[in-house]
Fold these 4 entries.
Entry 1:
Amino acid sequence: MTVLLNQKVNMNVEKLNSDIERFPQVHPITPDMKLTHKGVSRLVMLDRYAFKDTEKLTLSEGDFVVLTVKEDPKFPARGLGYVESINFEQKTAVVKVEDEFRGALSPEEAENGLITRSLDVIEKPLEVFYEQIAKRNATGLASVEKTEEKRKEWFEKFYQELVQLNFVPAGRVLYGAGADTDVTYFNCYVMPYVKDSREGISEHRKQVMEIMSRGGGVGTNGSTLRPRNTLARGVNGKSSGSVSWLDDIAKLTHLVEQGGSRRGAQMIMLADWHPDIVEFIISKMQNPRILRFLIENTNDEMIKKHAQDKLKFTPLTESEEAMYQGIINYKQIPGLGGFSEKIIKDAEEKLQTGGTYSVHNSEFLTGANISVCLTKDFMDAVENDGEYELRFPDVESYSKEEMANYNENWHEVGDVREWAKQGNKVRTYRTIRAKELWNLINICATYSAEPGIFFFDNANDMTNAQAYGQHVVATNPCGE
């Protein structure tokens, strides 16, 4: 799993140690240090967890750097290399990329490995050995001790466990401990239920943004948000629905730059009893073929409607029709006119359908993974091929006193079944054949890997949180 540094890279250790002197958090390289890891593990260590000269105070020619080797808005690629030259006026540098990362380069760049990149996507790691990270972590973890003697004692204990890999902390600890930065030591969080108000949603969004900015992933259960088109008396209008608000929260993943270079992570969930559950599942579907399959094969009108709303059809223009017909005309000619069979088949399909299928709002909810919270009631209905009620507190009929109770307590309860048991009015928005919803979940998960499923009642039955008067609200991205 590990290799010697001098087997992988060739750097000026004396200069790097001189640069390190400007950063009291970083421990210098010593002759006994050997752990660098290899392959992806090495890249992850240097990119995500190593302490870096983020202000580029010491960056110079010959330095070993982590950088974006492939600049792509959706799928950028990171790699390692050495600075050949720097133009501080233009804020660019020429970097010679290591061989194993040249696969992501263009053919011209890959030939000699030299690429020009903005300094914004180039970072200089000051910790190139795992032992340096272990020493920084041990220093940070031991710093809470009250005496110097105790700090030294616990530094040594922590360091030995870390450097021998007997204990490997979570990524946020590796990155943050001992770094003197204001980041979290926890990888992932679960938020309380969202309070069903503009103020509640704004506060939830603010807390998610704060957690993500410090490097933490976040899990949210949006089941407390009222369904689409439900009356919002305060503004004499109707709610845009839970799914639109959850998409707004999901967008934070794209907006917030997390501590270190860790990619943002969110898990967003909705209960199987929520009236918006079908919209929630279909809204993230990116495959038009599956949407067409749902439209043609489902017996549920709501599923069909949401699939139709998501599906986008662009008719062929006259010139496109002529072009595809021209391609098909070569089908009977030897050599197919230079076209492959696949191209001819695609042309036939285009003419048969009369256009191109795609999806509306292709970026919808892409900032989060989504899962459905499954209850025992729903699974029983699936097994018995029964009907299942989609329900929510009947806010439209609540009196002033009942609405005050809703605003004060609904987000603390978060489960429509418990809310009904407490004697509060609940409205059944519609019923759905449980197997139709179950099939929808499975079809979408099979062909797009989402939604996930979270056995909500089972989790609450088995959690030790009950001993503390708590209950499970959702899972975080790490626990999906």
Note: Confidence is low (pLDDT under 50) at residues 1-9.
Entry 2:
Amino acid sequence: MAIPSVPAGSDHPAPAEASPRFPELYAPGMPFASPELQSLAADGLLQRFHHRGYTLPGSPASPQLRARAAAGTIPASVRQRVVAGRLTAAWIYGCAGEPDRLALLVDAKRRVSSLRNTRGCTLHEVRLGPFDVVSIGGMMVSSPLRTALDIALHVDAERAIPALENLLARPEKDVRLRLLVLAVEATPRVPHKKAALEKLAALAPALVTGGPVDVEHSVDPADGTQDVAEVLGVTHLKSEL
């Protein structure tokens, strides 16, 4: 027997789509206090997802959920002014463990002084281009290639190499080692550039040990990976997540 439809203009409109019965992510104060969350986790009703957050047992982790977790630890007044980067971005992509402190990038065009008192994070003033940032789960995150470049340049080898391996091993992230080597080579006057190339050489010696890549036009390191792509004639960065 067919279910009759509700006629247009009826006093009984179709019911709205039901919202999830339980939230995906629980954080202190939303709605339980931290001791209550710990107790629920001890009873097996929740599982710890990150430092201050919990999910229902068996809930799959995703970049969107990790980004929401990171966003929840940042004051709302600050959230739209920063970009999750470096190992924090790698964690959001599922390519590194959760760092003890959030690494947040602040575009040099913005004022950083008002953000200095943001707790639980490290701020890095950088220049970001339009292809260096993507939006995931309500949080701005550095693109996979920009993330890999920053990790190679600024993170110690012990933590950088596993994260880089994971980023390179995931085709959906569209990070290619050859492009990453070219991006490092194309950024002059960058501290730790030699160390960055040594990290990449550990991943694929043949791409690095043959000597410096011949770059006809160098790029200011602060201009972002999209400018590296323009110099090298690469359209790679125009794709979006």
Note: The chain has two domains: 24-60, 68-238.
Entry 3:
Amino acid sequence: MKQQEFFTSRWSFVISTLGIAVGTGNIWRFSRIVAQNGGGSFLIPWVIFLLIWSVPLIIAEFALGKMSRKGPLGAIAHTAGNKFGWMGGYIAFVSTAIMFYYSIVTGWCIYYLISAVSGNLFTAPDHLQLWESFSNSYWPVFFHFIAILFSAFIIYRGVVNGIEKANKVLVSSLLIILIILLFRAVTLPNASEGLKYFFTPQIDYLLDYKVWLSALTQNAWDTGAGWGLILTYAVYMRRNEDIPLNASLIGFGNNSISLIAGIIIFSTVFALSGSEAMDVISQSGPANTGLTFIYLPLLFSKMSSSPAINYIFGVMFFLALTSAAISSLISLVEL
């Protein structure tokens, strides 16, 4: 019988689990939701729900996975009894359904990364036409399978040589790239206007229940709490791990990355689009494709007077986006 693998260290486990939480929702969805819900006003309930919703759920998933050493169905059955095992099965079903969609989004990211590296993305005369041409072709299907096969290969290699090593590269690369982009974004002319909107609360929005509901939804979406994914990784958690500490690190780490991504996008869009900034961010099309795949490539082509610098920052952004997408997809396939 093959001996069960475990993550080799706390930081390996935290980084890998952070890879679950940090995905495309942190980079593209978060900014749109903030723009639609009063900027800084949204951040207040967003942090509150992190504390009272996401972190407690992460703690619960850690405890279930560590105690039972089983997936969602087995963990619920082990804890609550066999007659409640269906609840774990339902969690797994919903997350699997999400995987079918998310793998397609990951394929989009891979395609746009390749387009960015080749330079075609930044020389295209019409980015809307480029997106429509891509989305109406067979390329999304092809890159969907590439995303699935790559994730499956990582999982095939095991916990230590696959999931752990892949997330060390993906999450670390994501963080480094976002920090570099952060420094560039906040130094753009008029970036302060974006930061002002992003961090300034408006009382009237705080009185709107829809803002609070959106904050709860965003926390549920971008932390991955309650999806069974964190529970699955907790199966490979070492016995001496501090569950509350790890849960806090992941929850606050995930939301910190959302904040960094938000600063980058708000600073860049406000700096380069002026009065159209709010329309660009808040009305970014279905699945946020307008902002990410149509408007941001155009912005990166105008970030400076140097095409080479614009190319570098554009490639870095789509590399970060792809890294975030793949790290989350790996956990969905593992489930």
Note: The CA atoms of residues 126 and 294 lie 9 Å apart.
Entry 4:
Amino acid sequence: MDLSQRAVEEAVHPTAAFLRASGGEARLYSEDAPQPSWDDSLLNPKNRIDSLDLPDSPLWRIDGCTGLGTQYYAVPVCLSNVPPMRMDVFIPEDQPSHIREQLDLHKAFHTKDAPRLSKLAITKHIIRTLQIWTKSTFEDLDAFERFYKSKPFGSRLVFENLSFDTRQINVKVGPNHNLELQLLSLKRLTALWGTMLQPLEVVDFFDVHVVSVLHDSVCLVRIQGQLFIFKALVSGVKYLYHELKTLCTVEPHANIISRPIHLIRKACSFGGKHAIVGFTTFYHQHGSLRDLLPQLRIHDRLRREDQLRWSIQVIQALEHLRTRSSTYYPDLRLDNLVMSKNFDIVMVDFEQRGVWCEFAAPEVNAIEYMRLVAADDRIPSEVSSKYQEIMRNLVPDYDRLQEDRYTNPQDGYNASWIALNPEEQEMAEVYMLGRLLWCIFEGVSGPQKAAVWQSYRWESNLEFPEYERTPPELREVIDRCTRGRRQNLGSIIVRHQSHLLLRHRLEEDHDANQVQAAAMAHWVAELKWAEEFLSERNRLREQGLWNYNYYNRPRLEEVLDFLLKIQAQYT
């Protein structure tokens, strides 16, 4: 099965339990697979790209990719100072197989970082297309700059079609007026939150200059010659405001990102509104623990003292959030742990959206499965209505949380975590901590090799819960932290050379229909378990008999004490 949005819906998400394969090619994964006809063959000149050579003086640069290979971070390097407009390139998801193969779209699905992305054909193709579009559409670069700065924040450059001939690609501008409607002014935020934003300096949007786009919501920018991280969202702006509020209310801690430094304000196209489109935080130049760990392992520089120190700092930050700020942290993964100048942990990302199911606790996944099915408009209405009702029983404000507009909720918008009480939230954090500790002590970028969503620059040969480097006493605590873990989809289906294949049949012939059938069987069983688990939880809660530490995991404090004792042996 080729990697695509359709593959996510029909195999990777629990929606696969209800969605039949939507047709298309049921490709046979075998060296002996039938050869394509001449009309579809890559030997046919019409099915080949004319050139992938970059222009001598490219006007654009691509800094990354998201949206499962459909959204590309485009930066107009032809401008001397680039404001963070986030005018990304969007390409249509459904493409013929010969275009997907020639343009490396199946690789772009899971490739996010600029160094690897720059080697893919689609990146070069986009740059060549934008070069032609810019030169043919605008009289000169001054005219282009006026156009670029006049559009709403988060507007899009939409490739309405893909062709091997860049001159045949139609580029359409999609102004993001809907985002402008959702953005709020400083006056409105002050009315909601009081005076908490007063200490922050307000900076005009066009005084912020992009250095590089690091993530779909994060840019490295320069303000008055100094580097900062600029956080903004081009969709789901309610999460941005929730994070801003959280960072302004959380008590300071050495291992948690500090309060925002600037509020970035931009004039909107209509109504005279000057909206807060984002904020800045301190730039930690050493990057994330996700990229650091495999490098240290490869060069045999992964020291036990550092591993213990980082692990302890993570737990102390989690405990601080829970006990001093009465909040939860559902985003515990390696790329949300950046390194300070002294190579200490700094926890970032407080949107509270959560992690993918490979990292999340089973009790969180049980609710998240319900939410994903309830929210999918491709699911039969009688099915989605059933799961919507389950969500409303779990979270009375469920419908309000689904709205696009910011409503100033106390606990954010993550229904799957809001449904849990504080003790259950702590146990879910402990589960994620166990997976994180495994990554730290094995020196790998993630708990799953060949993850569907993302490939890493340094892929591991290990997969949780396999052990090579972790000391025996730490293996025991990791196993206790991850009690209740279930076989996930990765035990059945894996990403292999940018395709989804059956894990146990990598060397055998099989096609996309067989992959989808296996995924459907997995998700039918998982949804059955999730419904039964939540039903039992509800019944026992009504009787006052529910054990909020259902899987008998250790408390954060207990894990911390254990690691501190081990750390003492190294000092």
Note: The chain is about 40% helix and 15% strand.
